[in-house]
Design goal:
Elements: E1 2-6, E2 12-17, H1 20-23, H2 29-42, H3 103-119, E3 123-126, H4 136-145, E4 151-155, H5 160-166, E5 172-176, H6 182-187, E6 190-194, H7 195-205
Parallel strand pairs: 1-3, 3-6, 4-5, 4-6
Antiparallel strand pairs: 1-2
Helix pairs in contact: 2-3, 4-5
Length: 206
């Protein structure tokens, strides 16, 4: 598997080989779906919370005696059947959305996503970024010349200039290569590495 190599100016400079261990795997859509669900579920926070009759402020005194009034029998003012009472089966903040997924399965799903990008010719590589002098206008020119209409740039932490120059471009996103995740890989059409970041990716997983 190969990807097109670009200079910082956006000119094609040959091709670079992609290792089959990461970019030549069988695409397993079921595993990718599980990884996406795992990530999104574990990011959920139970915010909605309805107070039960135990949590509502109010007296527990019986409102009036059981017999002799001619009215239906009642309990206290916090009863769920009364206005201002507690909720019987409302949402609570104690809900747990956490899912589990084996580390090997998570890695296999990530490799499937990388392989899918490679098959679709969505993987591109830039030689490097001049971090000191890079401007947003230069980054826009690079993105345009590379024909990246929707892309995620996986770069090294040292490429802080690329982060700053590209953060104001709405069609692309810059992340550290160690933060590759299914949400970004599925959302954006192209995946762009630098030579250094793709080597770091290999060192992390191989």
């Amino acid at each position: 598997m190969e990807a097109v190599l670009y200079t910082q100016e956006g000119k094609e400079n040959g091709k670079i080989s992609l290792k089959d261990e990461l970019f030549g795997r069988e695409v397993q859509m079921g595993l990718i779906q599980r990884l996406l669900r795992f990530q999104r579920s574990n990011a959920r926070i139970a915010i909605a919370h309805a107070k039960t009759r135990a949590e509502v402020i109010g007296s527990t005194r019986k409102l009036y005696k059981q017999k002799g009034t001619g009215s239906a029998r009642v309990g206290d003012a916090r009863s769920p059947v009364r206005r201002g009472g507690g909720a019987a089966f409302g949402p609570t903040k104690d809900r747990n959305f956490t899912l589990r997924m084996n580390k090997k399965e998570r890695r296999a799903a990530l490799f499937s996503l990388l392989s899918a990008k490679a098959v679709e010719n969505g993987v591109k590589v830039v030689e490097s970024f001049a971090t000191d002098t890079l401007k947003t206008k230069q980054m826009i020119d690079l993105v345009t010349k590379m024909n990246v209409t929707s892309g995620v740039f996986a770069v090294c932490p040292e490429d802080i200039g690329a982060f700053v120059a590209g953060r104001n471009i709405p069609t692309v996103k810059f992340i550290g290569v160690n933060y590759l995740n299914p949400m970004d890989l599925l959302k954006y059409n192209n995946l762009v590495f630098t030579k250094a970041s793709i080597e770091k990716l290999y060192s992390m997983y191989l």
